[in-house]
Specification:
0% strand
Length: 706
């Protein structure tokens, strides 16, 4: 019951983002203009151009113009080819075989990413429609393909020439607010007095500032997630914004930790010059943050080169050390503060470079110290993704086979029963079936609810009016509003898209009773999809999630070991280990989100599992802090803590894999003598994070084994 309730909640869930009114109106024009021309010129065949406008518009997921042009152009050409082949008449047996081959291949397109995967779904849908409505002869089939190309070119003209949209503008504005709040805090710390406390310290105000910044970060995270979820294909701009968001989160931690370090540091007059340099670095850092905010808000390059450096503070401290003016407590506190300034400088450089590349869409080849590592820019052989997913252990391979077999069975059933508009059954199978069981059930609910409500809406409208001109306006309006509300609610998108498609089919055929037919066929297709998901190579998430978590824990271990063996965090082995850790953590977190769609218990019971993922990421962040300070430490020996933590992490990974409680923590490692203060602090933090991670694994064991 809890699972069903969560699915129902997802059906009625509304995202915190703005409607895409511009995209909706553009979609209405892409479909409506060819339909108007067909009606005025009495050319029924021209409606294929309107269908092409819809399908090509659907694969435009935003991002750099080059990527959008490639995806829309590929859909136009592939649609024309597949439409030509499928429009030629054939036997029922050949139709079933063709459906199996085509839909399986389209499902396998997910090997190349989400955007090709989406294109595969859209292309499969168009192929099914064209197969169900065969052409009279080769000439008619060629005309259909030509009209599809014209419709696709019209949609591309709207999107890329006449009416380009900026789908990431809300996310950019939300992230810019975060950077402005961080800049305000940095400026405030930079104005602290040198000879006394930065006060009077108002704890309530400090908490309010942190709360406001955290709220802004989470709001920006929601907006960006909604934008990227609505645009399934990853764009470089989306990746850049994600890095900027994660960078703001990392800088928030620094802007909390560094002022606390300054508060406990000695404030004697002899240290005022050192404090002045640290305060100046804060003020300069605030300028960098405001440059990034301007680049986000104005959508043009604003990130000018920054000149501040922690070297001036280092030189002042070295001078004090030569004079013997540094006490042990001052040396420890200010060494730690300067170490944090080094990290702040590193973050600032990287984030300014990302902001510099927001508009040109070019990948940033940087060793990013914050957030998920950008995708590797090494080119991959064209067939490598296919080879990687050729095997029954691949989720994509199993999904493609399941999709093709179920669609072929649906085609055979439609042909045997001679169902009216039976292609709606097959389309429903293609749209509902997802690589994961829980997602299939949720998509089935959304599709069924949308079709029932939308079909009823179409039936009611047909009763009131059957004037073609009025219905054409209604179709355009439904398309426009459906696309506009899709970022807010996929269910609302389904509800509004259903009457548009029903009315479009009714205008083509003259059959005004198709709403009930669509509802019946949708329910049949949804049932077939659920049966296929349950019987054909099922992919329950609870069986994969522990392996995903174990992989993330091992990536934590490998990252620490690579750092322990390196002299600098810029070494390729360290960069690659950090990149792999980011990928593994993202994969585990995505698996957890899918697990939620299948979980039958209370969401509160999953809190230990959520903590396990959170502390796996925090441990990785602690290792990143150590890596960023490798050269500053003067080559401290990391092997004792690396050996200790590596063994614990391997045991945790095995415990998660085998669904058991991990072994008790061994006796803690012994801090080496002569270690500098910052190194000791970082090692203590690393071990504390490991202890919390171990505790989270113990608490999560009952949920992982259920």
């Amino acid at each position: 019951m809890n699972t069903l309730w969560r699915h129902l909640e997802s059906v009625f869930h509304v995202e915190r983002t703005r409607p895409a009114f511009g995209a909706g109106l553009r979609a209405a024009l892409a479909v409506g203009v060819p339909m108007v021309i067909a009606a005025i010129q009495h050319l029924p065949a021209a409606t294929w151009a309107g269908m092409a406008g819809l399908f090509v518009t659907l694969v435009d997921r935003g991002g750099p113009y080059r990527d959008r042009a490639l995806s829309m152009g590929a859909m136009t050409l592939l649609g024309a080819v597949m439409g030509l082949v499928s429009a030629l008449r054939g036997s029922d047996g050949s139709a079933v075989l063709f459906t199996w081959v085509c839909v399986t291949a389209c499902g396998f397109a997910r090997s190349y990413g989400d955007t090709p995967g989406l294109m595969g779904v859209v292309l499969a849908n168009y192929t099914v429609v064209s197969l169900a409505l065969p052409a009279q002869n080769l000439t008619d089939a060629l005309i259909r393909s030509g009209l599809f190309i014209l419709g696709g070119l019209w949609a591309m003209t709207l999107a890329l020439v006449l009416w380009p949209l900026r789908p990431y503008r809300p996310a950019r504005a939300a992230i810019a607010v975060c950077y402005r709040q961080l800049a305000d805090r940095a400026e405030e710390v930079g104005r602290w007095p040198l000879d006394g406390p930065p006060a009077p310290v108002n704890v309530v105000e400090l908490v309010d500032w942190e709360s406001r910044t955290r709220q802004s970060l989470e709001g920006a995270r929601d907006v960006l997630a909604s934008t990227r979820r609505a645009r399934a294909g990853e764009s470089d701009r989306g990746e850049h914004l994600l890095v900027l968001l994660e960078g703001a989160d990392a800088l928030l931690a620094l802007l909390v930790a560094l002022p606390e370090t300054l508060e406990v540091a000695p404030r004697e007059p002899r240290y005022q010059a050192l404090r002045a340099e640290i305060h100046r670095a804060f003020a300069e850092h605030a300028r960098d943050l405001r440059h990034i905010a301007l680049a986000l808000e104005r959508e043009r390059h604003e990130a000018s080169p920054s000149t501040w450096s922690p070297d001036r503070a280092r030189r002042v401290m070295a001078s004090l050390s030569e004079e013997g003016a540094l006490s042990d407590s001052a040396r420890a506190s200010y060494s730690h503060a300067i170490g944090l300034l080094v990290r702040m400088r590193e973050y600032s450089d990287a984030l300014l470079d990302v902001a510099d590349h927001l508009e040109d869409g070019r990948p940033v080849e940087l060793d990013m110290p914050v957030g998920p590592h950008p995708a590797s820019q090494r080119s991959r052989p064209l067939l490598e993704p296919l080879r990687d997913n050729l095997g029954t252990d691949s989720v994509i391979f199993r999904h493609a086979l399941r999709l093709g077999v179920t669609a072929a069975l649906a085609t055979a059933l439609v042909r045997v029963l001679k169902l009216d508009h039976g292609y709606w059954v097959i389309i429903t199978v293609i749209l509902v079936l997802q690589p994961y069981s829980g997602m299939t059930f949720r998509r089935g609910l959304e599709r069924a609810a949308g079709t029932l409500l939308g079909g009823a809406l179409a039936a009611g409208l047909v009763v009131l009016v059957r004037e073609p001109a009025v219905l054409l306006v209604a179709i355009m309006a439904f398309f426009a509003v459906a696309i506009a509300v899709k970022p807010l609610s996929f269910s609302a998108f389904q509800v509004l898209l259903a009457p548009a498609l029903v009315l479009l089919a009714e205008m083509q055929t003259g059959d005004w009773e198709l709403a009930g037919v669509r509802i019946a066929n949708t329910l049949l297709g949804g049932a077939l999809a659920l049966i296929g998901a349950r019987l054909l190579w099922p992919s329950p998430e609870h069986s994969r999630f522990p392996e995903e978590v174990a992989s993330a824990l091992r990536a934590d271990r490998d990252y620490l070991l690579s750092v322990a063996a390196a002299r600098s965090d810029s070494e390729p082995e360290v960069r690659e280990a950090r990149r792999k850790l980011g990928i593994r953590l993202l994969s585990a977190e995505a698996s957890f989100q899918r697990l939620l769609t299948e979980w039958r218990g209370s969401s509160r019971q999953l809190e230990p599992t959520m903590a396990l993922l959170a502390y796996a990421r925090r441990f990785g962040a602690a290792v990143t802090a150590v890596a960023a300070s490798l050269q500053w430490h003067g080559r401290q020996d990391l092997s004792p803590v690396a050996s200790y933590a590596g063994n614990v992490l391997e045991d945790l990974a095995l415990a998660v894999e085998h669904r058991r409680v991990p072994s008790p923590l061994p006796r803690s490692w012994v801090q080496q003598e002569g270690a500098d203060a910052l190194f000791s602090t970082q090692m203590d933090r690393l071990v504390r994070q490991l202890t919390v991670l171990h505790h989270a694994t113990v608490r999560a064991a009952p949920q992982l084994s259920s």
